[in-house]
From TrEMBL, chain A:
It holds the Pfam family MbnB_TglH_ChrH. This is Uncharacterized protein. InterPro entries: MbnB/TglH/ChrH (IPR007801), Xyl_isomerase-like_sf (IPR036237).
UniProtKB/TrEMBL annotation, chain B:
One of its GO terms (molecular function) is DNA binding. Residues 5-95 form the Putative DNA-binding domain. This is DNA-binding domain-containing protein. It comes from the Bacteria.
Amino acid sequence: MLDTSGHPMHLPTAPGVGYKSQHFQAIMDDPAPVAWLEIHAENYMGDGGRPLAQLRHLAERFPISVHGVGLSIGGEGRLDPEHLARLKALCGWLQPASFSEHLAWSTHDSHFMNDLLPLPYTATTLARVTDHIDELQEALGHRMLLENPSSYLAFAESTFSETDFLTEIARRTGCGLLLDVNNVFVSATNLALDPRAYIDAFPLAQVGEIHLGGHDEDEDDHGAPLLIDSHGRDVADPVWALLDHTLQRSGPRPLLIEWDANVPDWPMLAQEARRAARALEKVAV
Amino acid sequence: MTISQTCFRDALFDRAKPVPMGLQDGQGLPAGRRFNVYRNNVAVSLTEALELGFPAVKSLIGKENFRKVSGLFLRQTPPSAPMMMLYGKEFPDFLESFAPLSDIRYLGDVARLEQAQREAYHAADAQALAPGALARLQPDTLAQSRFRLAPAIRLIRSVWPVHDIWRFATMDGAPKPTAQAQDVLVTRPEYDPELLVLPQGGAAFVAAILAGATLTEACEAGEINAEAFDLAAMLGLLLQSGAIIAVEPEV
């Protein structure tokens, strides 16, 4: 386990948004109420140009959270050493306030599938994910946050609940957790679970960040609701209610609005961030 | 029973394969079309990455055809790394060898021009040589110098009017291309790639510079390819576009 006592990294307990380059000027002009920004690590792994120039400007003014979407921590194979080196280089020069990745896999046989794919929760996968997180934290030299996935199906072979699995990973590796409340709502709806019971079973003390995003509605072969984690619209009301339930138990946490498809103009995104700010005010200590 | 990631991946990419056994809904029923969410996410997200990178190709063959071709390409050549900004390096060659599109013989070169612009956009930053720097060198010294070009520089040589086709496909009101060969230099003066159609002999000159030739050698390469190769005009183009980042006199 990594010794992370006294590490300086932390995000403000305030609203942040997933950064989109079309919002650069609006953010530089008037970011309120947004206090921090999250970037997808893989979009900033070019050698230079405008993306990195913008990021350098933003990093002078805002705490930055680096959110990886391509490390494949849940993969059967070993972590890609080249990708690990790219992450290390990015975090090295940027010195982000946080680094997070997903409980998922996306690469197999050096094929990257550009999606967060699910894994069963077993003793075998627990050992594998734990090893990968140990390796990543060792390479980065600090603690990471691991995010709970959106699930559309379950594995018959699983022997752990997702909350038990995440609890055990955090205990073994010392990593923190990124709680995506929309993912909880999506997974609970899709797998006929109680989202509040999921939150109540979640190790909230380890949560360093909370995600909120929009989902789409579909249905499965039997007409049961099938929610899709699209990040293409505003956050649904029941997800805001689930956030309130969470914050009452966890206390204030850094809150992030993710809006990656059909990206709105800045005022609309800022409006979502204001709603997040109000949710935090309700539990202000 | 354990579902291997090989089995999961193969079923993701091949819709004819059955959904792996042991995937289920909340009641323990077979996952069925729930698995298609992952199939769709993979196919749609990779297709979108290609659409973003190759808008002229998309415009030339139409959205539906582009989607079909992308679907074949992404199964044959999935990304080898998680950076989507450059996914599709092999797409130009794929298009060129794809029989149903063989009538559109310039498609591969248009795709190469688009990939070159993506690469230029993400290339390392470099300080361009000051415009007066060449004038300070003795003519003999200059003649034996080698030039270092910016990391963003890309050279696309084509027997097709590749620049005009690209412009016609991506810009409203651009004139219809007429038959001619075009060599295009991709430069990046600041952050946005710019395209320069090179005069005759220009591509041979730039190719020689990129290969490490001296100015004299590069000039000879240009002259072989064009009787009226204009070195001063060519150097002017390179300097104005910030393409030259260093002059290294021969020691």
